[in-house]
Design goal:
Distance between the termini: 34 Å
Structural class: alpha/beta
Strand content: 15-25%
Number of strands: 9
Radius of gyration: 19 Å
Shape: globular
Mean pLDDT: 93
Order of helices and strands: HHHHHEHEHEHEHEEEHEEH
Largest sheet: 7 strands, mixed
């Protein structure tokens, strides 16, 4: 049964790839707003996260972002029909930059010698970042395999089409990232805004709420002197607007908490540009310091 569902899903994804991206995006928005709003667990998580992070907003403002978020969840899923099927050359045609010089520091770093780390939070469509950076350097990124083997292979093949090397989410994978950064043209990509395994992070404020934050990128940067940037591929009509900014200087501190705080502040600055495009459905605050109960209880 599972293999049949996977085969059907992959077939639908491939079929949708024949439609134009603007049409696919609109379809995703409609499906998201029509169906996902009835998912009580998702709606509750989004509502609570917005309350934690934007207490200054009115209830009406947070409700508006919640409704918009449903649409962007559907749109992100529908966009995979292009990102996982079409060739890189096609995807690059959809990509613009937010401002003419907004990513110049990042491009300069890639044109220089030395390792570079690009951190891509779940904001906009993060899958786009690998296509964007492939124009400049080959990237090594961590990848957590899907439980379904057929789906896993499909996604794996799609993500490797940009030329990226994929590293497992274990010690072996960390060593692969370290090796890549020691290469003078090394580029490593990491998703920085999920709750890491206990012992692999520290508590730092995220929108003034304690969030268990990964320290892997910080450790890699200290060991290799890599330059670190934070990115987002914002979803716009008919494509994606990529913005890449240098991480706050506090990230390079020897202190893990100061570094994690700086990382979260940089991520926050990008989220505030388009809060409706952030993954508020994820329970970012499920771990709390000193054994306190999850904020979602």
């Amino acid at each position: 049964m599972a293999s049949f569902i996977t085969s059907a899903l992959i077939s639908v994804i491939k079929l949708m790839s024949h439609l134009s991206l603007p049409v696919v995006q609109k379809m995703g928005q409609i499906v998201g707003k029509s169906i996902l709003r009835f998912d009580c667990r998702t709606k509750t998580a989004i509502t609570k996260n917005l309350l934690f992070c934007f207490p200054e907003m009115s209830v009406e403002e947070r409700q508006r972002i919640t409704q918009q978020r449903f649409g962007y969840m559907g749109q992100t899923l529908s966009e995979m029909s292009h990102l996982w099927v079409k060739p890189s050359t096609d995807i690059l045609k959809y990509i613009t930059t937010s401002e003419s010089d907004s990513n110049q520091d990042f491009i300069d770093a890639l044109n220089d010698e030395g390792g570079v780390i690009i951190l891509s939070p779940h904001l906009g469509n993060w899958e786009v970042i690998s296509f964007y950076v492939s124009q400049y350097r080959k990237m090594t990124a961590m990848y957590r395999p899907q439980k379904d083997e057929a789906l896993n292979q499909f996604i794996l093949n799609a993500r490797q089409q940009t030329g990226s090397d994929l590293a497992p989410t274990n010690r072996k994978g960390v060593m692969q990232l370290l090796k890549a950064l020691k290469n003078e043209n090394g580029l490593v990509g990491i998703l920085p805004d999920q709750v890491p395994q206990q012992g692999s992070g520290v508590f730092a404020p995220f929108f003034n709420t304690p969030a268990y934050t990964m320290t892997l990128a910080h450790q890699l940067a200290l060991k290799t002197k890599a330059k670190v940037f934070v990115s987002a591929a914002f979803q716009v009509d008919g494509g994606f607007s990529v913005r890449v900014v240098p991480v706050d200087e506090g990230f390079y501190s020897e202190d893990d908490i100061e570094s994690a705080t700086a990382l979260n502040q940089t991520i926050e600055s990008l989220i505030r540009l388009h809060p409706e495009q952030y993954q508020w459905e994820y329970k970012r605050f499920k771990l709390q310091p000193d054994g306190q109960e999850s904020l979602y209880k």
